Amino acid sequence: MTNDLLSLDNVTVRFGGVAALDKVSFTVRGGQVAALIGPNGAGKTTAFNAISRLVRPAEGRIHFDGKDLLRLDAAALSGLGIARTFQNLALWPGMTVLENVMVGGHARGRVGFVTSLLGRPARREDGELRARAYAMLDWFGVSDVAHRECKGLPFGTLKRVELARALISDPTLLLLDEPAGGLAHGDVRELGELLLRLRDERDMTLLLVEHHMQFVMGISDYVVALDFGRNLVAGTPAELRDSPELVEAYLGTPA
Ligand SMILES: Nc1ncnc2c1ncn2[C@@H]1O[C@H](COP(=O)(O)OP(=O)(O)OP(=O)(O)O)[C@@H](O)[C@H]1O
């Protein structure tokens, strides 16, 4: 697949007098693993927030799957096929792993999640959701903890649970905010393999914000670097590896 799935076109986001994004443009093609990189404060999270409509750009356009995202109302967004994970895990600690994953599906399904938690007679839709949640946990290799509370489980396991929850709504595009953050070396490698399997086996498109450069360069098809809210450079990892602009942005101008 080589179609343009997501495109930002001259997007500007201002917070008071500060332009967190200043005419930022980039395109993510369907079936790609793409990454947004850049030093602290470059505007990466703001770009994610603009795509998921948590902040509203002052200028510019964002297109997803042929639709003008900024013209859709919030209600139309949920079924559009964009899911995200957060920098700090956004799981309910006192609920079981399975329940947490089912919450992701209820955002899309018709049965109210509170209703199902209250133990009303299981409806067919709820049973289907439960089965899908199990299957998703199984895919991520964590179905053995389905009935454990999230509280107290290892961080690497919880990261997988969060991915399962994001994917249960069957999105086309998955936004991952610092997926490797806080993971041990071995877990980072396994996460990379999982993300590539999502692309290859489930035909997903991924856009990640990430500081772990070795991880980014190892799994991405396309990398967009921002600095001070502006486009800096973009290209394949091979094209960017020796980019003087990138080195300068991270390390400062050579003396
Ligand atoms: N809600 C906000 N109100 C005011 N300023 C903000 C807000 N969110 C972000 N900013 C500012 O916008 C700029 C870009 O921030 P952003 O968090 O998008 O950068 P980032 O590249 O994600 O950084 P990091 O790598 O540290 O997470 C920064 O100068 C930041 O202080």
TrEMBL record:
ABC transporter domain ranges (all copies): 6-253
Organism placement in taxonomy: Bacteria, Bacillati, Actinomycetota, Actinomycetes, Pseudonocardiales
Keyword ATP-binding listed: yes
Record has ATP-binding as a keyword: yes
Entry's Gene Ontology molecular function annotations: ATP binding; ATP hydrolysis activity
Transmembrane segments: none
Protein name according to UniProt: Branched-chain amino acid transport system ATP-binding protein
Organism per entry: Actinophytocola algeriensis
Domain of life of the source: Bacteria
CDD domains linked: ABC_Mj1267_LivG_branched
This protein's UniProt keywords: ATP-binding, Nucleotide-binding, Transport
CC terms in the record's Gene Ontology section: plasma membrane
